[in-house]
């Protein structure tokens, strides 16, 4: 079994770190290397990660075009499971 981690640092509260981390995970899961990949996410600040399995209604047409250019389906994460307490 292999494992990896990533540390993304930056200014608190501007959502870029979370967005970038989710984009990296989404890209990995939709690549050949990601066919058997899994991830564990810890959200210590709020509930923004509770909606990974739902479509993003605020995604613009321009943002959808970027996903198309990258060859990524523009859809929510699949097979999401939540564990823990609120």
Rg result: 14 Å
Largest sheet: none
Assess the beta-strand content as a share of residues. under 5%
The ordered H/E elements are HH
Describe the global form. globular
Query: Termini, distance in Å?
Result: 31 Å
Mean pLDDT, all residues: 84
Task: Let me know the number of strands.
Answer: 0
Query: In percent, how helical is the residue content?
Result: 25-40%
Q: Low-confidence parts, pLDDT < 50 over ≥5 residues?
A: none
Structural class: mainly alpha
Number of helices: 2
What's a concise summary of this model?
With 86 residues, this protein is mostly helical. The chain has helices at 16-29, 61-69. The radius of gyration is 14 Å and the shape is globular.
Structural notes for this entry:
- The protein is mostly helical and 86 residues long.
- The protein has a domain of 54 residues.
- Helices cover 27% and strands 0% of the residues.
- It has 2 helices and no strands.
- The radius of gyration is 14 Å and the shape is globular.
- The protein starts with 15 loop residues before the first helix and ends in a 17-residue tail after the last helix.
Brief descriptors of the model:
2 helices, 86 residues, globular
Write the topology of this structure:
Elements (H helix, E strand, L loop, with lengths): L15 H14 L31 H9 L17
């Amino acid at each position: 079994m292999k494992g990896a981690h990533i540390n993304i640092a930056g200014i608190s509260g501007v959502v870029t770190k979370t967005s970038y981390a989710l984009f990296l995970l989404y890209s990995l899961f939709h690549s050949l290397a990601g066919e058997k990949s899994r991830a564990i996410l810890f959200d210590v600040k709020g509930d923004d990660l509770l909606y990974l399995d739902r479509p993003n209604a605020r995604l613009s047409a321009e943002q959808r075009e970027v996903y198309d250019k990258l060859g990524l389906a523009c859809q929510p994460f699949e097979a999401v499971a939540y564990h823990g307490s609120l």
